[in-house]
Amino acid sequence: MMDEAPSKAPPAPTVEASVEAQVKAPQPRMSDHCTNDAPLDISEVAAGEIAKLADVDVYVSKPEGVFSSAARLVLLLTGGTGITAKTNQIQADHFARKGYFVVMPDLMCPRRFGS
């Protein structure tokens, strides 16, 4: 038994082997909503309205029959384009057609706090 050579440790991984393993690893995939949702049709006309809510301008889009049934609420927050952007209004209207009552506040609205 003394004549046996000691077992060798496995070779250290090389940079090439590490890169090859990363390439073979499964890559993240986009979910269905990223690839299957149709883009907004900018030829659509916004159906909601801009109103005041506690001195803040808001875009409101209501589902049909909102007063005859229980409605769910979506608080739609926009980026820098705000409530006057047609694409934001159309997106709010899409939620309303699916039965949601949508309120989209103007986050850029100048207002005074504490007065």
Automatic annotation (TrEMBL):
SUPFAM superfamilies: alpha/beta-Hydrolases (SSF53474). InterPro entries: AB_hydrolase_fold (IPR029058). This is (Perigord truffle) hypothetical protein. The lineage of its organism: Eukaryota, Fungi, Dikarya, Ascomycota, Pezizomycotina.
